[in-house]
Amino acid sequence: xxxxxxxxxxxxxxxxxxxxxxxxxxxxxxxxxxxxxxxxxxxxxxxxxxxxxxxxxxxxxxxxxxxxxxxxxxxxxxxxxxxxxxxxxxxxxxxxxxxxxxxxxxxxxxxxxxxxxxxxxxxxxxxxxxxxxxxxxxxxxxxxxxxxxxxxxxxxxxxxxxxxxxxxxxxxxxxxxxxxxxxxxxxxxxxxxxxxxxxxxxxxxxxxxxxxxxxxxxxxxxxxxxxxxxxxxxxxxxxxxxxxxxxxxxxxxxxxxxxxxxxxxxxxxxxxxxxxxxxxxxxxxxxxxxxxxxxxx
Length: 297
Description:
18 strands, 5-stranded parallel beta sheet
């Protein structure tokens, strides 16, 4: 069984920032990640509200942080965390490949895209249906695509796709939008982005997406569909720890510690008012510093 002082679950900006602070203080830690470092920011083509950069891509920011981690010799293990077990003095992180014994745990698992929950969604996933415009947008060069949503992620996806696709339909059930006003203005300035109201009832197609049928029976003939309708915390593996809210977010105190002593949580998986990169990083720094005080006692 592998042993270390702190196990950090999730290598988005919050998890990576916590690792930097701990490693610089000489604390042995390991980052556990089931997919790719960076979390959801790697799906951001242009980040324009990160201090120090007028514009930077999510992938470039991730690579810069990974370089710091490498210089600090932080261990990154690619494995899926399935369960956490709490002992009298130690804790165990049960991964799909092995178990890791730790003194402290920081959970930074973030969120994942909310599904449409309509007929045909599962069947057509990766066959015209994608939840990431940055990842799959290039497949729809010169074609017609549909983006669903009204927030910043929907607007950013529509803008990105407008430079690739022939036409982008931005669908929302109302004529009002939740996105920042400057983003809405940019979207409205793109001639090949069309605003439309309606709700999806069914996705149709056999081997690929052929059309999207709305509840008013309107049929939208599109080659690609990108739902951007919200996020769900990635916390299913924590249900038995009694640290979650009814909607699946993690509850923490002012030190970012959960109800379980020695288990902390930061980033987009915790319940809070605002979800921003700089906020997640600030939480990570504060959490790491609080944890260092606990370790020093």
